[in-house]
């Protein structure tokens, strides 16, 4: 079982691309919004940077 889970509030996303720039291994732009490639993670990695730098606070990395 994955140790971490990403909760992404897509409706809040403004599509600035900060998450994709900081963590391209798990974030990409899809149309005018960002999108995580995986929601279940064994390691936080750069996703914590994406969470902390999102200007609208729509990315949440939670421990399971």
TrEMBL record:
Domain 4Fe-4S ferredoxin-type: 4-32
Domain of life: Archaea
Gene3D superfamilies assigned to the protein according to its UniProt record, in alphabetical order: 3.30.70.20
Keyword Magnesium: no
Signal peptide bounds: none
UniProt xrefs under InterPro entries: 4Fe4S_Fe-S-bd (IPR017896), Fe-S_cluster_ET (IPR051269)
Pfam families found in the cross-reference section: Fer4_13 (PF13370)
SUPFAM superfamilies: 4Fe-4S ferredoxins (SSF54862)
Keywords: Electron transport, Iron, Iron-sulfur, Metal-binding, Transport
Iron-sulfur as UniProt keyword: yes
GO molecular function: iron-sulfur cluster binding; metal ion binding
The protein's name: Ferredoxin
Lineage, highest ranks first: Archaea, Candidatus Iainarchaeota, Candidatus Iainarchaeia, Candidatus Iainarchaeales, Candidatus Iainarchaeaceae
């Amino acid at each position: 079982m994955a140790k971490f889970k990403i909760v992404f509030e897509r409706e809040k996303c403004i599509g600035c691309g900060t998450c994709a720039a900081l963590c391209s291994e798990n974030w990409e732009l899809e149309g005018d919004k960002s999108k995580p490639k995986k929601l279940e993670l064994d390691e936080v990695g750069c996703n914590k940077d994406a969470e902390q730098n999102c200007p609208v606070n729509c990315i949440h990395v939670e421990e399971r």
